[in-house]
Each structure stands twice: as C-alpha cells, then as structure tokens.
C-alpha cells in the first residue's frame, strides 16, 4: 500500500491525502497523524483533497465507527472543504451514506468531486475567488 500526505502548494493551504491499493484503519490513522502535524505548522484554514483511487472496498470493518471518530476530531484550522478524487458511483454512495449517518457533521462541510489533482485545485481556487468576491 502506498500512502502519503503532502501540501499541494507552497502556500500550504491544502493537503493531499493519497491512498493506493488495499488499506486498513491503522494506515488511515497514521496518515491522519502526519496530516495533523502538518496542519499544526500553519495558522490558516486548510482544505483537504482525498485521492483514494484503486483502494478496493472502502467499507472495511467498523466503517461507521471509524468515520465518525475521524470526522469529529478534525483540527480547528481544517476549512471544512473536502475534494474527493475517484468520482465513481461507489464513492458517491459512501458519501451519501456518511452524509445521512452524520448529517450534523456533513452539513458543516463542503464536499466536491474531482477527477484529477489539477481539477481539485481548480475547484478550490474557484471557491476561494467566490469567497473573496462576496466579502
């Protein structure tokens, strides 16, 4: 399994979580520790891009319990904007399941889908432009 967490830009305004191949919850939590350490180095909102292409079955044992734990323990400077890469029907179904199971959590998040990292960054940039033009 090849997993990584890294900044997508020099400005450190978004993190890219990349998972490849079969996964387990220990690997997910290791990535979250790395991401937490990275987010701790900045004092501004950080967006999240999750690239989970080819991970296989996403509904591993304890999926809802682990998902709730993850989404309720985010860093204060997490922006609430999440871009999901792998826009297939399985991922959309998982998102719908989580949205229904944890509606109070997901109502505070903005989730979008992208096919590539460039597409994800474009969506975040467009959202930033929209936010600044409203202010």
CATH superfamily grouping = STAS domain
Percent helix: 40-55%
Count of discrete alpha- or pi-helical segments spanning 4 or more residues:
5
Structural class: alpha/beta
**How many beta-strand elements?**
5
* Binned strand content: 15-25%
> End-to-end distance, in Å?
43 Å
CATH architecture: 2-Layer Sandwich
Work out the count of structural domains: 1
What would the principal axes of the Cα set say about the shape?
A: globular
SSE order, as H and E?
EEHEHEHHEH
Strands ordered across the widest β-sheet: 1-2-3-4-5
Question: What is the average of the pLDDT values?
Answer: 82
Structure description:
- This protein has one domain (2-134): 2-Layer Sandwich (Transcription Regulator spoIIAA), CATH 3.30.750.24.
- Helices cover 44% and strands 24% of the residues.
- The protein has a 5-stranded mixed beta sheet with strand order 1-2-3-4-5.
- The protein contains 5 helices and 5 strands.
- With 135 residues, it is an alpha/beta fold.
Question: Tags for this entry?
Answer:
alpha/beta; Transcription Regulator spoIIAA; five-stranded mixed beta sheet; 5 helices
What's the arrangement of secondary structure elements?
Elements lengths: L1 E6 L6 E7 L4 H15 L6 E6 L11 H10 L5 E8 L3 H13 L1 H4 L3 E5 L2 H18 L1
Parallel strand pairs: 2-3, 3-4, 4-5
Antiparallel strand pairs: 1-2
